[in-house]
Amino acid sequence: xxxxxPVEATLDVIGGKWKVVIMCHLIKGxxxxxxxxxxxxxxxxxMLTQQLRELExxxxxxxxxxxxxxxxxxxxxxEYGWSLRPILDAMCSWGEGHIALIEKEVAN
Amino acid sequence: xxxxxPVEATLDVIGGKWKVVIMCHLIKGxxxxxxxxxxxxxxxxxMLTQQLRELExxxxxxxxxxxxxxxxxxxxxxEYGWSLRPILDAMCSWGEGHIALIEKEVAN
DNA sequence: CTGTATCCGTGAAGATACTG
DNA sequence: CAGTATCTTCACGGATACAG
Lengths: 108, 108
Prior knowledge:
- The structure is a homodimer.
- By secondary structure, the first copy, chain A, is α+β, with helices and mostly antiparallel strands.
- Helices cover 59% and strands 13% of the residues of chain A.
- The first copy, chain A, has helices at 7-14, 19-27, 33-39, 45-57, 79-82, 85-107, and strands spanning 31-32, 61-66, 72-77.
- A three-stranded antiparallel beta sheet of chain A has the order 1-3-2.
- Chain A is globular.
- The model of chain A has no long low-confidence stretch (mean pLDDT 95).
- The structure holds a DNA duplex.
- Chains A, B: This is Winged helix-turn-helix transcriptional regulator.
């Protein structure tokens, strides 16, 4: 694939609808599938799995399966995934500021 | 709207399919509609206008109309839009590194 | 040159049920 | 608990034509 501008490559990796949200949660530490679901009430099982698979394929997320019953699967950022941290941090903090701004406007 | 995590607010603003690309181009300076189209061969007139309108509505992009014939419209980042720069810069440079990595893999 | 309006196909994403 | 498999829906986004 030829990109017209490098940033498109970034969007290929974290441009999915839920990918940034998932990554932001994983920054705080590894999470089980069920934990991620609770953290993202809006996502369906299908989408969660799908987005995680794609992140895995791009080498930014790790999937660890514990061979036990009931099953336990844990997701975490790979070392390469950690290189996205500056982006994720920036997006998180900008979002906080933006929300504060919106609520201020609503108050008026 | 209630966000489950602040970063969702950020995605509301720059989560559109072309928004980050547009913003990255505007970082380098104001651009006319036709210039943006050339910079983004894959985008349609409709999508370009739509995404620009939404960015405008969110206060991150400015639209300046010159009253002349033929029409001339110039887009630029607003002051608030500039606050997104850390995110955009990080995404751009990460993309560059990611592309380099991919091409290296292909070479093997 | 810039923008709007319309039509329409595709595919993303939801709901549901089922497996191990 | 975690994941897969269908089926369906609907909105995103493309193509096209037209207007100022």
